[in-house]
Amino acid sequence: MRMSSRLIGTAFMVMTLGSGLGAATVPQLRPTLAIVDFETTPAGSILPPPHLGSALAGLMLDRLVASGQYRVLDGRWVKIGRGADGRMNLDAVREYAESAGVDYLVLGSMTQFSAENRGRTYGGGFVVPLLAGVRRQKVELIVGITVRVVDVRSGEVATTATSQGMSDRRRLKIGALGLFSRGGGGGFANESTESRDAQLSEAVQRAVATAAQGIVNAAARLRGQG
User: Fold this and answer.
1) 166/169 Cα distance (integer angstroms)
2) Distance of CA 76 to the CA centre of its chain
3) Residues 6 or more apart from 110 whose CB is under 8 A from it?
4) 133, 175 in Cβ contact below 8 A?
5) Which of 11, 12, 158, 193 has its CA 20 to 30 A from that of 183?
6) pLDDT in tens, 33-44
7) Which residues of 97-126 are buried (b: 16+ CB within 10 A; e: fewer)?
8) Three-state DSSP class for 151?
9) Where on the phi/psi map is residue 123: left (φ > 0), alpha (ψ -120 to 50), or beta?
10) Which burial class, exposed, middle or buried, applies to 200 when counting CB atoms under 10 A from its CB (0-12, 13-18, 19+)?
11) CA nearest 211: which of 35, 32, 47, 87?
């Protein structure tokens, strides 16, 4: 009788440990996201470059995949896109997303795209025969974005992230006069033709990195809602 009770106790412990180990090894399901090209409707006088919305979505996809917190689908793969007028057909989006097993849509929009020039000019007289003036200029490029993570089934906004990325460049412009000309001559500057593109890339990368981190931080909560 004592032996049988001991065997029963041992079997119970083995079953308990086995079930605990099994529960511990079951991986938590990651929410599935699909990322749609960002809206880049200009909010100011400066027009953003074409295809910037697609570039923003691509950078966001890269960040979220690298985090390992989500299963990430490219919105173009599941046929989530925009019409000729730039708007999405929400009914079609929901249908495609659900059929692909998507839990959440990542929708982004540009809230700011601006450039500001600040400068000071020195000289401008004829103290130095060859130097008409020196202008120091600081150019700031700012990109702001807002990202929403929307539940495909209910349309509920599960989380949002807002960020701003800035890049600046300092430039030195020097106006030159010819030796035999009193009316002014040509000019030169140490500007690079690739400087503006590099500045835009930096601002966009910074804005996306901050917004993506906000979405990554919400991953545990979204797993609980899925």
Assistant:
1) 10
2) 17
3) 38, 39, 40, 41, 43, 48, 52, 53, 56, 143, 144, 145
4) yes
5) 193
6) 999 889 987 666
7) beebebbbbbbbbbbebeeeeeeeeeeeee
8) strand
9) left
10) buried
11) 35
Q: Report the C-alpha gap between 162 and 104 in whole angstroms.
A: 18
Look up tokens 């989006």; give the residue: 93
Per-residue model confidence as pLDDT tens digits over 59-75 = 999 999 999 999 999 87
Strand ranges for the chain from DSSP E: 32-35, 71-74, 104-122, 131-151, 157-176, 187-189
Q: Helices 52-67 and 195-217 sit at what angle, rounded to 10 degrees?
A: 40
Q: What is the spatial distance between Cα 81 and Cα 92, in angstroms, rounded to a whole number?
A: 10
Q: For 122, what's the count of Cα atoms within 13 Å in the CB-facing half-sphere?
A: 7
Q: Which CATH number fits domain 29-112+142-164+195-225: 3.30.200, 2.40.128, 3.40.50, 2.60.40?
A: 3.40.50
DSSP 8-state assignment for residue 160: E
The rounded radius of gyration (Å) of the Cα atoms in the chain is 29
DSSP 34-68: EEPPPB----SSSPPPTTHHHHHHHHHHHHHHHHT
What CA–CA distance (Å, rounded) separates 167 from 139?
A: 8
Give the other-Cβ count within 10 Å of 6's Cβ: 10
What pairs with residue 120 in β-bridges? 136
pLDDT tops 60 at residue 101: yes
CA 202 to chain centre: 11
Q: pTM for the full model?
A: 0.69
Task: Give the chain's length.
Answer: 226
